[in-house]
């Protein structure tokens, strides 16, 4: 069943990158197979965990050795406005004896203990490599526990060996579609209900967007999965419109919600002034097409005009300071193109961006905005990054935490823009916060000091 599910995900019609491949190439999957022992890049279990863990009131139980939980726990800076259950590390902690005797009884006991002590609305059970290889029937245990305790116990079947982190994202989406979405009905429905997919409320970014929705009159029915609650996700099928923030990760959820419940979806971005405005315009236009009142568009235009006027005034001081400053953007997915427009808004020059985790549509957006001559790298090796920074081809590198040491070794400023960050960069306020952090990083006196010869030289 898992193999069938993996092949179904690989054949995802909503992913143009997969559909552009031959049938033989499509069967190989979304990315190259992971090398044994590779520590960077994550596995399918890790991808499933980070996609669903922001559902704040759910107990996330990892069925496997303790290292699987230890290496993935709290590795994404998702925030919650209420419950903190999602930040508690639950694991069955399988040992060598469990490998011999099986871990099903241990799993059932763990589910019972969680429900007894914490009483969450649901328990998500993540299958890892070890129980999958020894043959634990996790789905049967979850069904039995659900009947026994009267609570949803959801199996997330994404053991690490089946593929990459991106595949794990999709398998997590499949689990939601199979077991969660559509299982409850909202008390009230409106013509402006929307569902956002692929927004994880990193550093509280969703909270910068939601006040704009409220002012315009858009009701956020469900977010998958930033600052989410289990019951909200279960009612997501009653949204009038779905926005997919990162198409490569959870496009299968948006497509299947459209097939099952007739909910149209579009891909948008909350990063940068123009992209934020375009998202609000697209969202209100599509809601009006689905029956919402036309004044929704007028309210959106009023909010956009006010916020753009305010943000341009706040960005003006940075333009002179950023004149001539060059940025190397080493990220992927939606940020590979959305961050380009966001940074250029502030007057920075982008020397190039990585597209390793980007879709064909992401790359086309970059080409449309920057032209075909713009540097895009599918696989930029660390030594090549180091050479670029050492040769002063960029003044600052923006990337995730795994790449920071390349920049620090080259004695070039570095800023974290990936999932571990502590600052929110989405929306109109977010671009100002991003510019403030870049300015502080560039102007820090430490960079002048580390470039000086050492006293003993």
UniProtKB/TrEMBL annotation:
The keyword Cell wall biogenesis/degradation does not apply. Pathway: Cofactor biosynthesis; Fe-Mo cofactor biosynthesis. Residues 43-442 form the Nitrogenase/oxidoreductase component domain. Keywords: Nitrogen fixation. Transmembrane segments: none annotated. It comes from the Bacteria. Belongs to the NifD/NifK/NifE/NifN family. This protein may play a role in the biosynthesis of the prosthetic group of nitrogenase (FeMo cofactor). This is Nitrogenase iron-molybdenum cofactor biosynthesis protein NifE. It comes from Azospirillum oleiclasticum. The lineage of its organism: Bacteria, Pseudomonadati, Pseudomonadota, Alphaproteobacteria, Rhodospirillales.
